[in-house]
Design brief:
199 residues; 7 helices; mainly alpha; single chain; elongated; 0% strand
C-alpha cells in the first residue's frame, strides 16, 4: 500500500546534513570506534546508578519505571524509593541524557557504514543508500531524551499521571531500536557478502 512520499529529511542519510569533513570523520573507522567508546563511557555510570534502584516494586530498577504505564504502578515504584534512591534515579537519567545522543549517533553512523559496504563507500560523502535505517536510532534517541525529561519531572513532582506519556515514549524508543536491530541482522549476510567481494 502506498503511504505517500517520505518526509524530505529522511530521504537522505543523516550524515549528508553535516559538513563533509565532519561526516567523513564520523563514518571512518576511528570515528566509529570513538563514538562507541563514548557511548560506553556514558552508559556505565548510568547503569551503576540504575542498579541502586532495584526494589520489589521495581525489579528492573529504572527500567521498571520506564514501563510503568499506569499511574498506580509508577506510584508504587516511587513510594518504594527513598530520597537517596530518587537521587540515584535522577543521576541515572542525567547520564542517559548524554548516553542517548551518543548511542543514536553511533548506531546511525554504523548503519550508514553498513549501507556503504553494499554501494561502495566514499568517506567524504557517506552513503547514498536509502536512509530510513540510519534515522531509526536517532529518532529513538530523541524519544529517549524527552522520556528522561518526563521521568525527571515525575520523580520531582511526584505526579504518577506523567508516567503514561513517559511510558509511551519508552515503548517508541525500544520499538525503534528493536526494528533497527532486526533490520540490521536481516541485512548482515548481504552486507558481509558485498564487502568480501570488494576485498
Amino acid at each position: 500500500m502506498n503511504t505517500g512520499p517520505m518526509p524530505a529529511p529522511f530521504r537522505r542519510p543523516p550524515s549528508t546534513l553535516l559538513p563533509p569533513a565532519l561526516a567523513g570523520a564520523l563514518l571512518s573507522t576511528p570515528g566509529l570506534v570513538a563514538l562507541f567508546v563514548l557511548a560506553l563511557a556514558l552508559g556505565e555510570p548510568m547503569r551503576a546508578h540504575a542498579d541502586a534502584l532495584v526494589t520489589p516494586a521495581a525489579p528492573l530498577g529504572i527500567l521498571s519505571l520506564q514501563f510503568a504505564c499506569a499511574a498506580e504502578g509508577a506510584g508504587a515504584i516511587l513510594a518504594m524509593w527513598d530520597e537517596e534512591a530518587r537521587q540515584h534515579a535522577r543521576l541515572s537519567l542525567y547520564w542517559d541524557m548524554g548516553f542517548a545522543p551518543a548511542y543514536g549517533i553511533a548506531l546511525a553512523a554504523l548503519s550508514e557504514r553498513f549501507a556503504a559496504y553494499r554501494a561502495g563507500w566514499d568517506p567524504g560523502r557517506g552513503s547514498r543508500q536509502p536512509a530510513v535505517l540510519a534515522w531509526l536510532p536517532l529518532v529513538a534517541a530523541a524519544a529517549d531524551i524527552v522520556e528522561n525529561a518526563l521521568h525527571l519531572i515525575l520523580i520531582d513532582a511526584g505526579d504518577p499521571a506523567i508516567s503514561t506519556a513517559a511510558c509511551a515514549l519508552a515503548l517508541v524508543k525500544w520499538g525503534l531500536l528493536a526494528a533497527w536491530l532486526t533490520a540490521t541482522i536481516v541485512a548482515m549476510p548481504r552486507t558481509l557478502t558485498d564487502w568480501l567481494r570488494r576485498r
